[in-house]
Specification:
- The structure holds 3 protein chains of 3 kinds.
- Chain B contains 10 helices and 17 strands.
- Chain B is α+β, with helices and mostly antiparallel strands.
- Chain B folds into 2 domains: 238 residues, no CATH class; 189 residues, Jelly Rolls (Sandwich).
- Chain B has a 7-stranded antiparallel β-sheet with strand order 7-6-5-4-11-2-15, with no helix packed on it. A 6-stranded antiparallel β-sheet of chain B has the order 10-9-8-3-14-16, with no helix packed on it. In chain B, strands 1-17 form a two-stranded antiparallel ribbon.
- In chain B, a hairpin with an 8-residue loop joins strand 4 and strand 5.
- In chain B, helix 4 crosses helix 5 and helix 6 runs antiparallel to helix 7.
- In chain C, a hairpin with a 2-residue loop joins strand 1 and strand 2.
- Chains A and B meet through helix 2, helix 4, helix 8 and helix 9 of A and helix 2, strand 13, helix 4 and helix 8 of B.
Chain lengths: 262, 469, 311
């Protein structure tokens, strides 16, 4: 297991594109946060004091874009081996397939955790600079964000967890689908298209269900720090829903990966 | 050196024109079973999700269906109207003695319409608490008068199909506000006084949804000196009240009314809603279009392609035409299939159901096929530039979806600009109604996507001939 | 149009790597020209430039006197097989050939003809993904023959084939050349071209090492050497060395002699009382001749700087 882990880590590390992708996770997250925080200001509220903006959530907004790169990285770790035929070499070296999948999962989780932490901290930092300029300052009743604050810490740490769960979801799906194009499309459709389409669902009961059970909207509930009672699903149960998706995908991918010939 | 007579190919009249290229590309596209299945899957998913979405598309809001029976949900035609028939030309004059200020757009004034049924051609001259005197017609025309408040004298004069509005402080000196023409106005018209008031509306937008709550908001106004003056002498029939009976020959009225006579910006676009399922089908088509290109690079098949057809720009153009054409045809199947199967599932409301005879609806349905075709060509161009599946798919999906996902969480003004300037503007072609959140009109929206596609394809064609394959 | 493939002063580099450096040669119709060099010598690059896939930095590569990208309906003029794996695995063999045929307006019956020619008719409707390497090679060759072209370019066609497949390709190449076509076949193993090539273009590190007919190359490599079989190897070597010959032991009971004609060797050995069981002129294999050539090339490359003056 230790050798297998070392082997997977070496594979990931020695492909330059992986380094760029990991970096892109952080950069995209921070950039999208910067854009989002710049677009929102107290000027859009009736009065600055009645904005009720969730500033922690706002400054973690970039995660929804960073996750796209997480998906690409996690899918490629698996599907690239099928595309190049390297999977046969890998399985010749490590014949126990569940070990291969688990070590891949471990390596990708570690990478995304590191890149995600970087992105989340960067987001909080850039949000902390931009938001006060846009009116979210102590004069209007918004205290600067601090990781020592319980809910803010939960939102930040939860965002990193969110990204790692997305990575596992993508890895599981690519182990099941094997093809890069179809895997990425499937995961991004699940993440992005479901929330966009649910904008058009008018039945409040169905809308509520969709918000509770679509992986992105449920998982991102972890970022909420105020008006928790008005969320369709609580922060931790929401992340739990995503974890369920990730576990199901890993299970499906794992079973197919072990059973199918390479 | 061995000398022999040079060999001549036995093949007669080979041709490598554009038609041959298209035939070759079509053969490639149709001969991979997995791709055909993806296409079929895209159509099925589009139709199925359209049917599911249609189930929840009927009512406008959680506050009930405020739509006016039998007319497009784009318009509201309600309120309290007291009227009588006027034959031929003539005028109606009244003084709005007082008006309750319950909404800036509460309306009290005179109205002339072809008949009393909802949706009939009308001209209305009114006083509003927030926007002064207005002459409005047929939901879209809106001519401002003075900013006066009640009490104020108003006069509507009909000449043929022209209706002119006047206002006056004293009922003696009149100021003309404007003239509107009402197509379809017969010899007999209904004239009278009305009160209307838009519902109080609460709107909540958030990640993945919007909530609209409407509450009835009663408007109130008092009219006196109400007089109908026919151009040719006639016996005027008695006043008729739509809500409560009124005295047959009254000259003053106190009216209370709810509901608006106006363009409605919060209607549910049921056609767009059911066609939104095409977004799932679109994902399948993006994956297919990207694979169509990148698989050749991955397998080295591109060398065979370029040795068979060395004029590479034409290869790419042929590919775009074939893929775009195939997608358009399949898109038509998906879009019409969705409309025909999903329309019956739309919850029946007051508003008239969407039909294909409505040019807006037809444009949305055919436009959905066009949207899919353009997105396919856009994906193909991006894939030709990037050559890698992962990169191409991520770029295309983010360009198409990110503005929509981000938009629903950003302030409306920012979201609208995102939807105007990015390729996701193309989704506008699915609109049949104009709403508060409409960023761009249907055809200009599709044009934005087409422009992105043209630039990407142009660049891809320009570069493909200059690069080593 | 003359069915001649011609490369003139070709130079192509990818980034800092020079793949082909001032290469010139021509391929005549009616014979099989072997294009030989170790892996990475620049064979594939030359072929890619010939087929218009890559643009040369300097010089030109012409097929039938024109640049490939200027050809109309190129499949009827040049047939090529570059990479045996270049198929979509989900496509059926016949469909692969069909789209190629369509692209040059060739009739669909050509597809069936070439399938028959390479012996794939029975699997024509199977997906290429399930094909063995040998079947893929045959399909690639079928694609090259689709337009019945007077010029053919094959990159490593026998790579990874079984002996039966190698025999098949050899015979096919000879047959194609016999019809008057110009055939260029690359290989990194000279032995693969034994019995099929008439002419050889040998390159190393992107430069021409030899452009010669197979007969000339073998004659030059034999270079008057004589093989002697003898139980008294030591004595034979002594006698012949004294007479001024260069003698090399090639086995426990055999030596190779150069510098003396056969008759003189027989006389010397008889006079010296050395018994021998056989004496014959040495016939080197193509491989040996090639090794000798490339040895020079390697030695040469060791002393860089004179690169331009050689070849």
């Amino acid at each position: 297991m230790r050798h297998a882990l070392h082997a997977e880590w070496t594979k990931l590390r020695t492909l330059p594109s992986n380094l760029w992708l990991a970096l892109a996770i952080a950069v995209f997250t921070v950039a999208a946060t910067a854009a989002s925080t710049a677009a929102v200001s107290t000027a859009q509220c009736p009065t600055p004091l009645t904005c009720f903006e969730d500033t922690a959530k706002l400054s973690l907004k970039g995660v929804w874009l960073g996750q796209a790169i997480v998906v690409v990285l996690a899918v490629l770790v698996m599907s690239n081996e099928y595309g190049t035929g390297m999977i046969r070499t890998t399985l010749a070296a490590i014949p126990r397939r569940h070990t291969v999948l688990l070590t891949k999962a471990a390596v990708i989780v570690a990478t995304v955790f590191a890149a995600g932490t970087l992105g989340v901290l960067g987001s909080l930092a850039i949000g902390g600079v931009i938001m006060p300029i846009n009116g979210f300052n102590p004069a209007n009743g918004y205290q600067p964000l601090s990781l020592l604050d319980g809910p803010t810490f939960r939102a930040a740490a939860g965002s990193v967890l969110y990204l790692t769960l997305i990575a596992l979801l993508a890895l599981g799906i690519s182990a099941a689908v094997r093809d890069t194009a179809f895997s990425i499309t499937a995961v991004l459709t699940l993440l992005y298209v479901v929330p966009v389409v649910s904008t058009f669902v008018k039945d409040p009961e169905w809308l509520d269900r969709l918000r509770r059970f679509s992986p992105m909207t449920a998982g991102l509930a972890i970022q909420a720090t105020r008006d928790l009672d008005r969320l369709p699903i609580g922060p931790w149960p929401g992340l739990g829903v995503l974890a369920g998706y990730a576990a199901a995908a890993m299970l499906l991918g794992g079973v197919l990966f072990v059973m199918r010939r390479a | 050196m061995v000398m022999t007579t040079p060999y001549r190919s036995s093949v007669q009249n080979p041709r490598d024109g554009f038609v041959q290229l298209m035939l070759a590309e079509w053969t490639k596209l149709r001969s991979v079973p997995r791709w055909s299945l993806t296409m079929l899957g895209g159509i099925l998913v589009t139709i199925l999700s359209g049917m599911l979405l249609a189930g929840g598309a009927g009512s406008a809001s959680s506050g009930g269906d405020g739509a006016t029976r039998g007319i497009s949900p784009q318009y509201r035609d309600a309120g309290n109207y007291v009227h009588r028939v006027l034959t031929g030309d003539g005028s109606i004059v009244a003084r709005v003695a007082s008006q309750k200020n319950n909404d800036p757009w509460a309306k009290g004034g005179l109205m002339l319409r072809a008949d009393a049924k909802p949706g009939a051609p009308y001209a209305a001259l009114m006083i509003t608490p927030g926007h002064g005197v207005r002459l409005q017609a047929n939901f879209v025309t809106d001519i401002p008068g003075s900013s006066s408040q009640a009490p104020r004298w108003l006069k509507l004069t009909r000449t043929g199909i022209s209706v002119t509005g006047f206002e006056s402080a004293d009922g003696a000196t009149w100021t003309k506000i404007g003239t509107v023409e009402l197509e379809g106005l017969g010899d007999q018209a209904e004239v009278g006084v009305f009160v209307a008031s838009p519902d109080a509306l609460q709107l909540q937008r958030q990640f993945g949804g919007e909530d609209i709550v409407e509450n009835t908001n009663l408007g109130e106004a008092t009219f006196d000196n109400v007089k109908v003056e026919p151009a040719k002498p006639q016996q005027l029939p008695p006043w008729r009240g739509d809500i409560k009976p009124v005295a047959p020959d009254a000259t003053s009225f106190h009216l209370v009314g709810a509901g608006d006579i106006a363009f409605y910006h919060y209607a549910t676009d049921s056609t767009k809603t059911m066609l939104t399922g095409a977004m799932f089908g679109m994902m399948a088509i993006v994956a297919l279009a990207v694979l169509y290109v990148t698989s050749e690079y991955q397998q080295g098949l591109i060398w065979t392609t370029f040795t068979a057809s060395p004029r590479r720009g034409r290869v790419l153009a042929a590919r775009a035409v074939v893929l775009g054409g195939v997608t358009f045809v399949l898109g038509l199947v998906a879009a019409f299939g969705t409309f025909l199967l999903a329309s019956p599932m739309v919850r029946k409301g007051n508003a008239a159901p969407a039909t294909l005879s409505d040019p807006q609806v037809l444009r949305a349905v055919v436009g959905t096929a066009a949207l899919l075709a353009v997105v396919a060509v856009f994906s193909l161009a991006i894939a030709s530039i990037l050559r890698r599946s992962a990169a191409a798919i991520t770029v295309v999906l983010l360009l198409l979806l990110a503005p929509l996902v981000a938009g629903s969480a950003l302030p409306l003004a920012v979201a609208k600009w995102l939807e105007r300037l990015t390729p996701s503007a193309g989704f506008a072609i699915q609109q049949t109604l104009e709403r508060y959140d409409t960023a761009i009109a249907p055809l200009p929206g599709l044009a934005v996507l087409c422009a992105y596609t043209a630039v990407a394809l142009g660049f891809a064609i320009w570069r493909i001939g200059r690069q080593d394959a | 149009m003359e069915a001649t493939i011609e490369v003139r002063g070709l130079r192509k580099s990818y980034g800092p790597t020079v793949a082909v450096d001032g290469l010139s040669f021509s391929v005549q119709p009616g014979q099989v020209t072997g294009f030989v060099g170790p892996n990475g010598a620049g064979k594939s690059t030359t072929m890619r430039v010939l087929l218009g896939l890559d643009t040369p930095d300097e010089g030109e590569a012409l097929v039938g006197g024109r640049r490939y990208r200027e050809l109309r309906a190129p499949l009827c003029q040049v047939g090529a097989m570059l990479d045996a794996a270049a198929f979509h695995p989900g496509r059926r063999a016949r469909d692969h050939l069909l789209w190629m045929a369509h692209s040059n307006g060739l009739p669909a019956k050509r597809v069936d003809e070439v399938l028959d020619l390479v012996g794939l008719t029975s699997v024509a409707r199977r997906q290429v993904g399930g094909f063995s390497l040998g079947m893929r090679q045959r399909l690639g060759i079928a694609g090259a023959l689709l337009g019945d072209p007077p010029m053919l370019i094959f990159d490593e066609p026998v790579n990874g084939l079984d002996p039966e497949g190698i025999m098949w390709i050899r015979n096919l190449l000879r047959w194609l050349a016999g019809q008057g076509r110009a055939v260029l076949v690359s290989s990194h193993l000279m032995s693969e071209l034994e019995d099929s090539a008439d002419h050889l273009v040998v390159i190393g590190r992107g430069k021409l090492i030899a452009d010669t007919s197979v007969r000339e190359l073998l004659d030059r490599a034999a270079n008057g050497r004589v093989a002697v079989r003898t139980a008294q190897r030591h004595e034979a070597m002594t006698v012949l060395s004294i007479a001024g010959a260069t003698v090399a032991a090639t086995g426990p009971d055999s030596v190779t002699v150069s510098g003396l004609p056969v008759e003189r060797i027989v006389t010397l050995l008889t006079e010296g009382g050395v018994s021998f069981s056989g004496i014959s002129e040495h016939r080197p294999s193509l491989e040996e001749a090639y090794m000798e050539l490339t040895q020079h090339a390697v030695e040469f490359h060791a002393t860089a700087g004179q690169v331009r003056s050689w070849s």
